[in-house]
Write a structure and sequence with these properties.
The structure holds two protein chains of two kinds.
Chain A: E1 6-11, E2 14-19, E3 23-28, E4 39-42, E5 45-51, H1 52-56, E6 66-72, E7 75-81, E8 83-85, H2 99-104, E9 110-116, E10 119-124, H3 126-134
Parallel strand pairs in A: 2-10, 5-7
Antiparallel strand pairs in A: 1-2, 1-8, 3-6, 4-5, 6-7, 9-10
Chain B: E1 11-16, E2 19-24, E3 28-33, E4 47-53, E5 56-61, H1 63-67, E6 79-85, E7 88-94, E8 96-101, H2 115-118, E9 120-126, E10 129-134, H3 136-145
Parallel strand pairs in B: 2-10, 5-7
Antiparallel strand pairs in B: 1-2, 1-8, 3-6, 4-5, 6-7, 9-10
The chains are: A mainly beta, B mainly beta.
Amino acid sequence: MSGGRLYLLSVGPQRLLADGAAVASVRRLHGGAAGEQAALHTERGRVGLYDLADWLGAAPGAERRVVLVVELEDGPAGLLADAIDDTVQLDAPPEPLPALLRELGCDPAVTAVAFVAGIPRLMVDLAEVARSHRAGNPLGGALAQGV
Amino acid sequence: MPSPSPQPADHIFFRLATEWYALPVSQMRTIDRWQAPTPVPGTQPAILGIVSQRGAIITVIDARVLIGLPVEPPTRATRLLGVQHGEVPLALVADRVADLLPLDPDALQPVPGGRAASLSAGLARTPFGPTSLLSLEALLDTIRGAP
C-alpha cells in the first residue's frame, strides 16, 4: 500500500480492493451499454478499455459503468468495473496470500488479502492487471458513448 | 481373559460425490458450513479460492476435481474441512460430513486404479461402504504437480 485512497470495486459478484495511488482518474459512464464499449475518449485521446470481469473470470455485472484509468509505460489504459466504493475501511492491515497459494502460483496482479466487514478481499495491482490485459486481451465492440 | 479394548473413533468420515473418504482426526482443525470462497485469478481449477477460518486465511481445495469426481453445487450439507498437513493449513470441500468412527489402518487394502488411488492410503470396509483413507501428503503432491 502506498497510502493512497483505497477502492473497493464491484465486478459482477466479486469485490476487489485496489490502491487508488495507481489510478490516474476515475470516469463514470452514463447511458448506453458500457460493457460493449472498447474505448474511452478523454482529453488525452483514446484509452482502450479492459474488463475486470474478464480478468477475474467472473460473470460480468449489469452496470459496468466505472472506468479506472491507469498510466502504463506506453500510455493510459482503462479498467471497467460495475461500481466503486472509495469509503471502504479495512478491518486490519492487508496480509500476504496464504503460503500454499503463493507456492502454487496465482496471477501476479494479486498482491495481498485484506478483510472488509469480515470477508477476505483480494488486493490487486491495477497497473499489472492492465499490463497483462493489454498484452492480448482487449475488449471488442463499439466506441465509447455517453461519457 | 479380558476382551480387546474397542478401537477409538479417531477418523472423520465424509463424502465426495458418491464416494466415502476418511481422515484421521489428528489432521483435522475445523469443520465449517459452506462459505463461498473468494476466487483468486490465475490458479489451477482445483483451487477454489480463499476463505477465512477462525481469522486465518486458508486456501480451499476441491479434491473432487483432482480425483475426477463430478462436482455438484454446494448444498446445506456441504462442509469445509479445515485440515493441516505439517505446516500447511488448507480447507477441503466435502459434500457431506458423517461421523467419527474407528478405522483400522491394518485392515486397509490397496485402492483399485484410477486417480482416487493416487490420493488414497488404502481402502477399508466401513458402515458407509468402501471408504478411502485420504492422504493429505499425496493430495498436496498431486496439486503441486498439477499444471
